[in-house]
Amino acid sequence: xxxxxxxYIFFIVSIFPxxxxxxxxxxxxxxxxxxxxxxxxxxxxxSGDFAFGFQHLQENxxxxxxxxxxxxxxxxxxxxxxxxSNPVPRGSTVxxxxxxxxVLRDPRGQVLWRPHGINAGEVxxxxxxxxxxxxxxxxxxTWLWETFRFATDTILPLQKLLYDSVxxxxxxxxxxxxGRFYLRFLNDGNLVLRLRSLxxxxxxxxTEYYNSQTSDPLNSSDSAYQVxxxxxxxxxxxxxxxxxxxxxxxSIPPASENYYRATLDFDGVFTYYSHPKTFxxxxxxxxxxxxxxxxxxxxxxxxGTGACGSNNxxxxxxxxxxxxxxxxxxxxxxxxxxxxxxxxxxLEEPKKPxxxxxxxxxxxxxxxxxxxxNLLFIGVGFQxxxxxxxxxxxxxxxxxxxxxCCFSYKELAEATNDFKEExxxxxxxxxxxxxxxxxxxxxxxxxxxxxxxxxxxxxxFLAEVNTIGQTNHKYLVRLLxxxxxxxxxxxxxxxxxxxxxxSFLFCNPRPSWDVRTSIAxxxxxxxxxxxxxxxxxxxHCDIKPxxxxxxxxxxxxxxxxxxxxxxxxxxxxxxxNIRGTKGYVAPEWFRNSQITAKVDVYSFGVLLLEIISxxxxxMDVEIGDGGKAILTDWVWDCxxxxxxxxxxxxxxxxxxxxxxxxxxxxxxxxxxxxxxxxRPTMRKVSHVxxxxxxxxVPPCPSxxxxxx
Length: 708
Ligand SMILES: *[C@@H]1O[C@H](CO)[C@@H](O)[C@H](O)[C@H]1NC(C)=O
Ligand SMILES: *[C@@H]1O[C@H](CO)[C@@H](O)[C@H](O)[C@H]1NC(C)=O
Ligand SMILES: *[C@@H]1O[C@H](CO)[C@@H](O)[C@H](O)[C@H]1NC(C)=O
Ligand SMILES: *[C@@H]1O[C@H](CO)[C@@H](O)[C@H](O)[C@H]1NC(C)=O
Ligand SMILES: *[C@@H]1O[C@H](CO)[C@@H](O)[C@H](O)[C@H]1NC(C)=O
Ligand SMILES: *[C@@H]1O[C@H](CO)[C@@H](O)[C@H](O)[C@H]1NC(C)=O
Ligand SMILES: *[C@@H]1O[C@H](CO)[C@@H](O)[C@H](O)[C@H]1NC(C)=O
Ligand SMILES: *[C@@H]1O[C@H](CO)[C@@H](O)[C@H](O)[C@H]1NC(C)=O
Ligand SMILES: *[C@@H]1O[C@H](CO)[C@@H](O)[C@H](O)[C@H]1NC(C)=O
Ligand SMILES: *[C@@H]1O[C@H](CO)[C@@H](O)[C@H](O)[C@H]1NC(C)=O
Hints:
GO terms for molecular function: ATP binding; carbohydrate binding; protein serine/threonine kinase activity. Belongs to the protein kinase superfamily. Ser/Thr protein kinase family. The chain is of the alpha+beta class. The protein folds into five domains: 1-150, Agglutinin, subunit A, CATH 2.90.10.10; 156-307, Bulb-type lectin domain (Agglutinin, subunit A); 356-393; 405-494, Phosphorylase Kinase, domain 1; 501-707, Orthogonal Bundle (Transferase(Phosphotransferase), domain 1). Helix content is 22%, strand content 26%. The chain is built from 15 helices and 37 strands. The strands form ten sheets. Strands 30-34-35-33-32-31 form a six-stranded mixed sheet. Strands 1-2-11-12-13 form a five-stranded antiparallel sheet. The protein is elongated and about 100 Å long. 37% of the residues are buried. The structure holds 2-acetamido-2-deoxy-beta-D-glucopyranose (10 copies).
């Protein structure tokens, strides 16, 4: 029998003074060999709890040289030979040899792996210890090599982590290739979890998402120097002054009846598990403790994309991250659920049900109700608007709104690492990325350093910022806080991970029609709010794709609103200084006529035409082909000649959605009418975009038409 030929029984007299009974330990004799196939019988520990040998990986019919829990159905791996060639093909062998100790060979006899640091002829026998440690021993019983000293992703009771010990995560539960995360016990006493930077990213930019904070830089005797996992299952850190710091769970089920392990799981969570030794029916590992507490939030703050790849949304279930692609996106690598997701270019994206419900509600109220009810409804509507207007915010001296945080300049300098990482430059100043602790959570923020604030009165600055601070809308970038200190004026906004609409819109391939149209509707709704629904009207004055940001869900968020006023004394009066950006500014800016919310309608119209056509409003004359250099003129030409297909080129989704395309183009042309009084309000625009009301055929936008 293969089993007998590979083993012989070896007795070691126990050294415990009160226990004179010899303990049976199954030594593995020199010359013992295992072959990787289903009938391969592993080298077991005397209790049978642990096995060393080839574990069959069903998925790809390979074999993993490993140590595993042999008495549980999962056969959970506790250690594996850390070699790129592991797992190995059927027919590979592992042999205990006098010359080399232990050798893993492929079926042709090529050496694939062997333990480091063993001198020829030293090894006398091997031993699968009952604690899960596979040991190579000298004839004098000195331990020459042990799996406990070369931990892979798991530590077990009686195993220690010393300075510079590393656990590497695996690629997945079944793929034992090296994964993205590692745990390291730094020699300053901190235990850290990090995300490995991509190999081609050059320098070591690993992102830390957990730190045990157990280092005292001023007093090394007060710093942790060992991580101990004791036989009772206690996982803690030991300081040189013999104080301990609890790491694992406080309450642990009895050691006699349970297995324990702490594994850096493939999802980046360092997890403490227990499993009953005896059980009936199905039993599995129970999570007793894990760090970080919320990997989705902590990774997000540290890295920006979270424990999941880009466009892959992270949520926490039973302390573990679950990743779910954004709607309309699918996994880049279908086997890597935690990887990045890509948009499905050919599939129709599902509509957001919520938006649809509102549309239906409004429609049914207006269409379904009696005349009396409609009047009543409108009456109530006016009442609500009136009430809202009356409750206009009054600033009490220089009190800052409760929902805004006040930061010191020093805090913001620290948060942004001295204004190091620039996110963008706008007309009001430079925006930097920063990390701030708010409500005991790390949050990524965008810090805008205003460089052209002419209003030096602190009171007026605060009044304006408070107005912005009170805005809270789904399609606006939220202001979180501010800093006003000496000459410094800074605003802290929530961070938008998907950048600006400009970078999203003008790239190849063009974003899908449905995403584009819902972005347009979002911007329109945000402007309705600014113009009509917030406590005091806010005219944006600089609507352009660079000022529209995209949130996690690629939903539009208007930024920089309310800032125009910080630079001007009285917006509704004639301006000396033209605000806005070439290509988007309404003609009345040049005419010294009154500035109203209609300037935003104009800019929105240009933006809408850009969203439809994925073209910039003004192109380089050299690059722009005949007649297309000025987007608004070109759109009008296409519209007049009934060639809307030119606008969207071969965008099949848009061409098939002809009704919506026509509606969008027509309302866009209404918005860019030179005469402000002809332009609709943003509310009307929003209703047309949403399909609630119809739109008439627009006239030519220019009063005087130049033909090229
Ligand atoms: C497994 O390998 C052993 C040793 O080489 C061999 O005797 C046995 O026939 C193999 N079993 C199968 C099912 O291939
Ligand atoms: C098994 O490992 C434990 C813990 O390291 C140790 O105390 C024990 O002596 C080992 N058994 C043998 C037979 O070496
Ligand atoms: C035990 O044997 C090893 C290897 O032969 C040797 O390095 C070591 O010094 C020996 N230890 C003792 C205590 O004899
Ligand atoms: C962990 O991964 C690093 C980087 O690939 C490697 O150098 C190290 O040997 C690995 N450590 C373990 C214990 O597997
Ligand atoms: C395991 O993951 C690595 C890295 O992603 C990949 O190259 C390899 O093909 C995977 N192995 C299997 C069996 O899927
Ligand atoms: C790595 O970090 C350095 C310093 O923070 C930075 O200059 C560099 O751009 C980073 N590299 C990558 C690839 O992120
Ligand atoms: C370092 O810490 C230990 C114990 O925490 C304390 O007894 C000792 O006085 C400290 N030494 C210094 C220099 O602070
Ligand atoms: C384990 O628990 C037992 C009973 O509570 C206790 O006597 C023993 O000292 C503990 N062992 C360790 C290493 O903490
Ligand atoms: C810590 O404990 C060890 C073993 O019990 C002892 O030898 C050592 O003196 C202790 N150190 C301190 C600083 O108390
Ligand atoms: C055990 O698990 C299997 C598969 O997950 C399931 O089909 C079966 O019903 C479970 N049995 C019990 C007793 O829970």
